[in-house]
Amino acid sequence: MLFAVSMTFIDQTIVSIAAPDIIRELGLSSVGMQWVVNAYLLSLAAFFALGGRLADVLGHRRMALIGTLTFVVASALCGAVPTGGAAQTWLIVFRAVQGLGAALMFPAALAVVVEVFPVQRRGRALALFFGVAGGLTAIGPVLGGWLTSWTWRAIFWVNVPVAVIAVVLTLMARIPNTGRREPIDWPGAVLVASGMALSVLGLQQAASWGWGSPATWLCIGGGLVVLALFVLFELRTRDPLIKLRVFTDRAFAADNAVLFFSMIAFVPVFFFASVYAQVALGQSANDAGLYLLVFFAGFAPGTQVGGRMLDRIGARPPMLAGSALAAVGFALWARKITDLSLGAQWPYIVMAGAGIGLLLTPASTDAVNRAIGASYGEVTGITQTVRNYSASLGLAVLGTVLLHSTTTDVQEVLLAHGVPADAAHGAAEQITNGITGHGAGSGQGAPGVPAELADAVRGAFAEANGPVLYGMAAALAVTFLCALFHPGTRVTAEPAGPAGRTEPAGAAAEVPAGEDGTV
Hints:
The longest helix has about 40 residues. The protein is mainly alpha-helical. Helix 14 packs across helix 16. About 75% of the residues lie in helices and about 0% in strands. It has a two-stranded antiparallel ribbon with strand order 1-2. The chain is globular and about 70 Å long. It has a domain of about 170 residues: Growth Hormone, Chain: A (Up-down Bundle).
């Protein structure tokens, strides 16, 4: 399962690194390239809920294989894109198919891991699962830079041997395929996919269209209206796509709230740190990837400690400790962001990563442990939908904060050094274009800006990143408050009973944290 999901995490970050080469060879527009990147994330967000439900109905092993094959075929076709007028459409379509494959695969793969390990060992197992996943997200830019030096098509073809290994290992493992003979709520699937796609599209395009654009709010508002209709429809459906009563379990609701607010910081930090390393520190794309690995140096051990704490004392203590540690880490990182050296920042980057790792595994695992009638695919679909939506929200809002801060800080610094207003505005615009995907550059080479002011531009951009990191710290402070809402009980036995039962998931198998509930 780790081999299967590794492709999905790497592909979230690897394509951005190869964007300049893809644009140059295929003649894509910058807007078209942005759609190539966004199509994958958009499709992923739209189909997670359906993927989780299909995993429960058709069987976890079967859907893991179907998702893997869908993903790798789409990857191979992305790498085989022909040159010419159809190239842009070709890439966007098959990137969306990649996202569909990932949405079918991931809930099923996670459900397999959950099903294989008993509750008492599940925290450690999923700590490894999420630890590797986080590492692969960070490695994506490094791997992308290395593969692109050969050919950008290799960033898609590298998935083929990984998928072959995943399929072979899945067949060798002889994982039981336990499906359920239940109908699938297709109207609900259409509603949730449409609502997620519309709202996430609005968030993705906010930086390009502008927050004042009617199109932005039409997409976001329209998507939220459709999602509200989905909730009303599910409450009246006999066999819903998502059994919303699982949210009446206070612990499950708290787990998802923790995931929602923590993901505002976790996923976007890879993007913002990469841009910061390239613009403020003047690093290459490959070196910027190494900068991200400092965050992972804290994240990896954090996931392991969090998983073991979950198994011993429940989810509440590591979620509280992790959110507090991460909030402090991001705040201290923000204070040091203008020191343009990794040596001054790394302790706080590691602290931020360790805090995120400490809370991620307990929140994700505790939520899955509370599945209704052991509907692990369905619940993983819910948690991944929450995480994906939150990441899109974080990128949109914090990206807007960074754009505004960059424009203001860079122009103020250059104007103070006597640079003409037009040249100062051009330097700021060059950097913001790089952030939004419409170009690249640090602003150092903008017409009318003396080379000796390069350090001033870098320092101004570094200062502009401060509000972003403080925003992440604030999101993690809210995460801490959400963790306080968790009742502190822990699941010590598998949820049992038919999928249609009405009692809260795991209620008969909960014990207060700290008591011996060994089964």
